[in-house]
Task: inverse folding
């Protein structure tokens, strides 16, 4: 299942409420992130793919994944964080077959090479089949303070999953010093939010930690799978009252404490494309003193400049003497910043909302 | 007379072939440069104002100066440099009255305070009445290598023009060292291309230096002033063959050599708004770490940024962590550069022309 939520505020004005991050091609691959996610999964899952996304994105998601059956496109009336989205998918699938092993892979991540990813998913599935919630942890390449970490434990001996290990615990985003210790120790992996697990085990932990949320999702799932077309009414009635919480708190961490979580290390590059600095990183210019240009119809002139320009219009963009610049050109909003200030885009969006410029958010 | 020519390439994409510099408000005054020029002159000249501009700018100029009589709006079929434009104005005025003293003040200059300018023009007119071509030279405030200089000579003793002096010679744009010597000596003034002179004296020198150009302009002027409406036909026939040359070479320098040129120093600030660095200079932000914003409908968010943003659209522009930046946002083209690179805009325009992007030039 693919949870397709989150606006990607730090990618404004490209990413916005009605055109979130996962609907964009941020890697110059010619493919949107959600389509890339689908294509990465399809060789493993065939047509058994479910997407959970906001109601407003229904048409856009179907344009990206026309293969999706209506029954496998779950539409949230409003954002409720990951526990509700993933829990609902688990509840629906459990009604189809309680034995199902589900993988959850967010719609807005960039992964390469695909082969290494698929191998990790296969190991995770084999491990999940022994009754584990299995995260795929990323081998850290630098001491990031922007990700949570997974402390790995003892090696598990599972057929088809030679690298699977027990998870000792999840840890929150660390400070710089702690992050460095984590990386040096070799005992920690980045928590990329990817996991494979029996739906029954997910639901069991959800029921224990968040019984009301579990009950609500179960009722919605029953209506979803019923033939009597009451799903819309039930969703409209129950969804607004559901608790907003992350799957990490509602399932993963309590499950780890109970010894039910394993990890398979992923030796692939992984990026959640959090800001324009990530886009510059993922789309390196060929030469040092050069601009990275994204956009099918880009008309860019660059002189003595470096950085990234994202063209969502047909306008000519001329860049002269600007280093590490980030220019994002859209019909109704323009962003000019630098890769060093990419994180500050979030504050800009908040300030624009306060100023009453929500029409461009 | 107001010569209104020149695209202002370094001010692209604001200034362009069909919307040149003089049709913009570049000072945040609420007034276009050409209207500002007219209003600066009107208290001295009343309605006796002539504009020479390109045919394509006819309607735009009339919108800016509705006071203009059709007979005083001379339209060039193509750009022919300043000798043809100013020479034609002189030839037309000479047919109206050979005694006329004409002042020539380009449409795209910024001058303050107006009182000091008008006082200099009055002195220049009094000096011109004694049979001189009188330039108004600007007292240099720094050793500019971007302007030509005027070497002043002996003081003239003229009623109503206490500061008038003979001009020894004009000198081309100097190197840095020479410019510094000029400024230190106190003997040099910037050549701002402003002058006041009897039309007969202008034409006399033009006839000597460029007899063919003089003959062509005389014939056009005759047709212009005739009642038989042949002006258009004569203009179309003669104009294309006229020599392209600057008034400096065709009149001012030979006249100086002949001892016919005087100078009145102008103790006012003067800027020809040559590039976006000039716009930043002319529109200082109130606080150091702040953006200068030009544009009636600007919607700008600025954080940790300085420089100038010119908004020719209603788009939201967000600037984060960019220093001394220049952003010019128009419907079909966007420029991002720094005040230090403002001169390089000219090369960008040339490169875009070569690339075939002339639609935005």
Result:
């Amino acid at each position: 299942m693919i949870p397709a939520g989150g606006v990607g505020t730090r990618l404004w004005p490209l990413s916005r409420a009605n055109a979130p991050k996962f609907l964009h091609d941020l890697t110059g691959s010619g493919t949107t992130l959600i389509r890339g996610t689908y294509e990465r999964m399809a060789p493993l899952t065939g047509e058994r793919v479910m997407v959970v996304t906001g109601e407003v994105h229904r048409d856009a998601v179907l344009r990206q994944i026309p293969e999706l059956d209506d029954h496998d496109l779950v539409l949230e009336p409003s954002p409720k964080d990951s526990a509700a989205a993933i829990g609902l998918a688990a509840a629906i699938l459990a009604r189809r077959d309680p034995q199902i092993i589900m993988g959850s892979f967010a719609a807005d991540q960039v992964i390469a090479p695909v082969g290494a990813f698929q191998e990790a998913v296969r190991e995770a599935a084999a491990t999940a089949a022994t009754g584990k919630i299995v995260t795929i942890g990323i081998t850290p390449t630098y001491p990031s303070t922007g990700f949570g970490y997974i402390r790995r434990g003892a090696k598990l001996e599972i057929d088809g999953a030679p690298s699977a290990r027990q998870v000792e615990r999840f840890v929150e985003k660390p400070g710089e010093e702690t992050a460095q210790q984590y990386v040096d120790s070799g005992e920690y992996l980045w928590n990329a939010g990817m996991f494979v697990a029996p739906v029954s085990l997910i639901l069991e932990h959800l029921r224990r930690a968040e019984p009301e949320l579990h009950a609500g999702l179960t009722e919605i799932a029953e209506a979803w799978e019923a033939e009597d077309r009451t799903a819309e009414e039930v969703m409209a009635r129950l969804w607004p009252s559901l608790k907003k919480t992350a799957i990490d708190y509602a399932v993963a961490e309590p499950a780890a404490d109970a010894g039910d979580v394993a990890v398979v290390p992923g030796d692939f590059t992984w990026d959640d494309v959090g800001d324009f600095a990530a886009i510059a990183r993922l789309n390196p210019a060929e030469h040092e003193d050069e601009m990275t240009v994204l956009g099918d119809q880009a008309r860019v002139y660059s002189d003595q400049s470096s950085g990234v320009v994202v063209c969502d219009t047909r306008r000519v963009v001329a860049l002269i003497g600007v280093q590490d610049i980030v220019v994002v050109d859209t019909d109704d909003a323009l962003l000019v910043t630098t890769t060093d200030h990419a994180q500050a885009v979030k504050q800009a969006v908040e300030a624009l909302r306060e100023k009453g410029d929500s029409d461009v958010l």
